[in-house]
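Entry 14. Ran structure prediction on the chain below.
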Amino acid sequence: MKNILRLILIITMGILLTGGECGKTPSPDPQEEPKVAEEKVAEEKVAEEKVAEEKVAEEKVAEQKAAEEKVAEKKVAEQKAAEEKVAEEKVAEEKVAEEKVAEQKAAEEQNAAVLAIEQKKELAKEKSEIAVEQDADKSVEAPKAVTIISAPAEETDTAVNEMELVYFDYDKSAISPAFAEIIQKNYEWIAENPDVQIQLEGHCDERGTNEYNLALGERRTKAVFDHLVSLGANPSQFTMVSFGEERPADSGSNEVAWAKNRRVEFTRL
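Output, structure tokens:
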């Protein structure tokens, strides 16, 4: 019993000794307050720096975006300018092409007009020359038949034939209908004498160069030869030669003489 009381007394004293501080908040350490304040300031500074960094980052992003938009706008503007330049060049090329076509058309029309005038002048000149030649032909006496084919000496009394010449217009080798009839008559005699060899001799008047007149005489003999062959003549009976202006039938220098010299003669070889 005595021990129990002693234990109770000890407990009571212990409670009394510690009971006064129970439920009370311990007083802050005066040394810890500045430290806490510094930590708080540091935290606030870090927060402010973070906010500033975020703001700088946002501004940088905004600037980069603005720069990209500016570059895109510049690119669009350059592309648009390039397209406009291409369109202007195309329009200019089309205009140049149209002007070129117009100039070419004008040149062609001018050339056509000049050619028409020249053709008209040439036609008038030809008509004038033809008229002069026709007048000259009217004044020329009908050519007399020329004995150019004869029989051998032993047959002279019985075999003599007269053949006519073929005449041509100025600078022409075409056979007119009138002289086609003469070729027909000559052919009939030639056909009846297949053993006879005939030389067709082409002649021209003195106008033109020697070379040109030789070629013209050749064309005239060829025209007569082709006509004879078309009638049925044997080509092997004929030879052809052109004398050009070297053997005139009339030595005059006028339309009458010239008309006589434009001819093809039939000569027996």
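Confidence is low (pLDDT under 50) at residues 136-160. Will compare against last week's run tomorrow.
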